[in-house]
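Category: protein sequence paired with discrete backbone structure
Discipline: computational structural biology
Format: plain text, a pair of labelled lines
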Amino acid sequence: MLQSTESRTDRFNYSIILFTFCIRLNSLFKTLLEEGVMKKNFYIFPPILAVINFATLVPIGIIFLRTELSLCDYISITVGGILTIIFVVSLVSTHKIEQAQMKPIDVDKLITDGPYSVVRHPNFTGIICMNIAYLFFFRTLWLIPIISVFSVLWYLEARYEEKVLIAKFGEAYRNYMKSTGMFFIKLTK
């Protein structure tokens, strides 16, 4: 019984820390938006953002991991597995494309084949799917605000890349945008 009380106390303390973190992050975003930083040129080199993303989600997921399992939990873990497969496929399929590894400013050719024929940012799609997979694996609602924050960061990252690519490729990129979705398959053309 004592161990369970300590566990609850630890989780409560972690909850306070997480809540404080979310408030601080919110005030940071508000400041950045007011100063116009995020409207103009939000860009963090994607591998660095990915490390920050996963280094934040995994420990929090582990702290708040639900240990009991029911049928719903097995279904949840299966959904997480499917999302993980999407993550792996997106990374493997784009890893072979040299232009996909470059900063958008250095890209000299518009890529519209392979995974890019379906979505404009398959790597970011994979990472967002992996973030959601963590929610299903760890089965804790504490990840929702953090996943939301990182989804917004990936969206801002994609918007920056698109601004750069529109400046580089002009109408060709605009036409490409009309035929593909940013993160998910466009159902209507």
